[in-house]
Amino acid sequence: MKSSRVLLTILLIVSPLFLFCGKPKAQQEIADWVKDGALVVDVRSPEEYAQEHFPGAVNIPIDSVSSRLDEFGVKDRKIVLYCRSGGRSARAASILEKEGFTGVKDAGGIRNLFDSTSKN
Prior knowledge:
It contains 5 helices and 4 strands, in the order ααβαββαβα. It is α/β, with parallel strands linked by helices. Helix 2 (23-35) packs across helix 5 (110-118).
């Protein structure tokens, strides 16, 4: 009985650590891509982009992604996408990947992108 409690306590302490194992690596990869000159694309509306955007980002709203594929360049170009909270950037990533783009990373929301790149 006592060993079961000890085991349960250890699992409760250790298991949450596994939830965060992958996140720093993904954030670091995004930061590295931005640093190396990846195309950073804000898929929010022009109004949202005008209020605040990541330095150097271009604005291609989610509703225009399919019709503006030529602006993303070659299919193996490194592209980092972001929006407000991650929904639109995930949709944009899916569109680009279906069109054959291979170097696509979804940074999620704008705060995630700022957080990822500020750690370098």
